[in-house]
Amino acid sequence: QVQLVESGGGLVQAGGSLRLSCAASGRTFSNYAMGWFRQAPGKEREFVVARSWSGGSTKYADSVKGRFTISRDNAKNMVYLQMNSLKSEDTAVYYCAADPKYRLTVVAASSPSGWQYWGQGTQVTVSS
């Protein structure tokens, strides 16, 4: 079992920045790929970004490329999502996810159904 707890969400104006954090506990953190997904009201959960355990494989959704950056600190069992140039359409609940099968590569990691462990989510609201 892996437990994931997100933090850092909040209200920000368009063009602003936020950094989300995800604390992992349980199994060996380095055995897992880590990802971020989001879900806006009335919409399906969508892929944002994922990173392999070493960071050698990273995949971003086209909608966030150049604006969002994922990082992970395996020594601290933490993963972060730096979000810059936020837009109103980024408003959603953001979820941290973990799964061992994407540990080496996240090329095929964009489907939410493929991820085993999830956090409870943190709300991000971008006002225009």
Q: Which percent range describes the beta-strand content?
A: over 45%
**Could you describe the largest sheet, including whether it forms a barrel?**
7 strands, mixed
Secondary-structure element sequence?
EEEEEEEEEEE
Our count of helices gives: 0
Q: What's the N-to-C terminus distance?
A: 39 Å
Q: Which descriptor suits the 3D outline?
A: globular
Helix content: under 10%
Cα-atom Rg, whole angstroms?
13 Å
Please state the structural category. Answer: mainly beta
- Unreliable runs, pLDDT <50, ≥5 residues? none
Mean pLDDT: 95
Q: Got a strand count?
A: 11
Name some characteristics of this structure.
4-stranded antiparallel β-sheet; mainly beta; 128 residues; single chain
Write the layout of secondary structure elements.
Elements: E1 2-7, E2 10-13, E3 18-26, E4 33-39, E5 46-51, E6 58-60, E7 68-73, E8 78-83, E9 92-99, E10 117-118, E11 122-127
Summarize the model shown.
The chain has no helices and eleven strands. It has 128 residues and is mainly beta.
Your description of this structure?
By secondary structure, the protein is mainly beta. It is 0% helix and 49% strand. The protein contains no helices and eleven strands. Strands 2, 4, 5, 6, 9, 10 and 11 form a seven-stranded mixed β-sheet that branches. It has a four-stranded antiparallel β-sheet with strand order 1-3-8-7, with no helix packed on it. β4 and β5 (46-51) form a beta hairpin. It starts with a strand and ends with a strand. The mean pLDDT is 95.
